């Protein structure tokens, strides 16, 4: 997938740790690829570090995209470098990809964001408002000062759909979520993004009402997996080629070592770039990008392995 060069035209310091970057094509032409709400893109930063960021602007904006970057205290060069970017600088941006999107078959949509998890849900709120959808956006943050887009959310056209929960202690989140759940039905779809523990609470409480398969989750962090018990497996492609994957090495790495081209990005089981079809065998799923339904026929090659001794896969 070929990256395109974008120029930074506006920077907003949302909080002491979060800034938003508005970008336009280098040639100032309209966007060639329109995206659906909930999409993310690869961004090649100034230090050459590749990271994924959700598109948080209005999807119907034909001229620019918006990303939000939180500076992490243990940054390995990604977020820290992005906080040094200035107006006029250029960045390489990949084509939009969706693992999270607005479900068509729902009478109501509930968006539940925790901290920086507001980013993909903001674009979904824009889309739902534009199409006249019934929705509400719940936003949890430690304080208003630490909440990105706080000012924006008070003046946008759907401000009356926004429910801020700023300064609510973590141990009180379940009670707030139960209040939200009391108004939902099995025809409601729930979308959540934020820290893993926060999303787990959302899924547990709201999932009791709408159903676990109607809670859509967007992860920013890789899963913590114990690999000490890994054993060698055999991976075959639908073309007939077979490869031995030793313990301690990913399927993706072995395929690349043997000249097989597989699209990749995060290599942490988050972005979904390397997801491929499973034709035979039992995958050991270790990703944070596929839904339960997706896992019935697909797997992320960068992190997942197999419970069976052999897998047959189809590269997308």
UniProtKB/TrEMBL annotation:
Q: Where is the 2Fe-2S ferredoxin-type domain?
A: 231-316
Q: Which residues form a coiled coil?
A: none
By its UniProt entry, which Pfam families does this protein fall under?
A: Fer2
SUPFAM superfamilies, per database record = 2Fe-2S ferredoxin-like, Ferredoxin reductase-like, C-terminal NADP-linked domain, Riboflavin synthase domain-like
Q: Does the keyword Oxidoreductase apply?
A: yes
Keyword line: 2Fe-2S, Flavoprotein, Iron, Iron-sulfur, Metal-binding, Methyltransferase, Oxidoreductase, Transferase
Q: Which InterPro entries match?
A: 2Fe-2S_ferredoxin-like_sf (IPR036010), 2Fe-2S_ferredoxin-type (IPR001041), 2Fe2S_fd_BS (IPR006058), Beta-grasp_dom_sf (IPR012675), FAD-bd_FR_type (IPR017927), FNR_nucleotide-bd (IPR039261), MRET (IPR050415), Riboflavin_synthase-like_b-brl (IPR017938)
Q: In the UniProt record, does the keyword Cell membrane occur?
A: no
In this protein, which residues make up the domain named FAD-binding FR-type? 1-103
Give the source's domain of life in one word.
Bacteria
- List, separated by semicolons, the cofactors it needs: FAD
GO biological process terms held by the UniProt record: methylation
Q: Name one GO molecular function term.
A: 2 iron, 2 sulfur cluster binding
Protein name per Swiss-Prot or TrEMBL: Oxidoreductase
């Amino acid at each position: 997938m070929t990256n395109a060069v974008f120029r930074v035209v506006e920077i907003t310091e949302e909080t002491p740790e979060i800034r938003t970057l508005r970008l336009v094509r280098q040639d100032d032409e309209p966007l060639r690829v329109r995206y659906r709400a909930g999409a993310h893109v690869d961004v090649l930063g100034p230090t050459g570090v590749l990271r994924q960021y959700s598109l948080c602007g209005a999807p119907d904006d034909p001229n620019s995209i918006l990303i939000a970057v939180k500076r992490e205290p243990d940054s390995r060069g990604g977020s820290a470098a992005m906080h040094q970017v200035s107006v006029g600088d250029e960045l390489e941006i990949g084509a939009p990809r969706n693992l999270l999107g607005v479900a068509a078959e729902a009478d109501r949509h509930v968006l539940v964001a925790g901290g920086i998890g507001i980013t993909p849900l903001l674009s979904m709120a824009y889309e739902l408002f534009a199409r006249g959808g019934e929705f509400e956006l719940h936003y949890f943050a430690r304080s208003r000062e630490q909440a990105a887009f706080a000012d924006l959310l008070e003046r946008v056209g759907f401000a009356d759909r926004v429910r801020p929960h700023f300064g609510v202690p973590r141990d009180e989140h379940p009670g707030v979520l139960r209040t939200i759940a009391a108004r939902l039905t099995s025809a409601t779809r729930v979308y959540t993004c934020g820290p893993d523990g926060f999303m787990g609470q959302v899924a547990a409480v709201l999932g009791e009402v709408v159903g676990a398969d109607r809670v859509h989750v967007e992860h920013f962090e890789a899963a913590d997996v114990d690999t000490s018990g890994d054993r060698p497996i055999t991976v075959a492609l639908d073309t007939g080629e077979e490869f031995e994957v030793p313990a301690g090495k990913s399927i993706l790495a072995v395929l690349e070592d043997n000249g097989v081209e597989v699209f990749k990005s995060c290599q942490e089981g988050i972005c979904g770039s390397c997801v491929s079809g499973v034709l035979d065998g039992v995958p050991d799923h270790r990703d944070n990008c596929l839904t339960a339904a997706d896992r019935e026929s697909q797997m992320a090659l960068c992190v997942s392995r197999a419970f069976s001794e052999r897998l047959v896969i189809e590269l997308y």
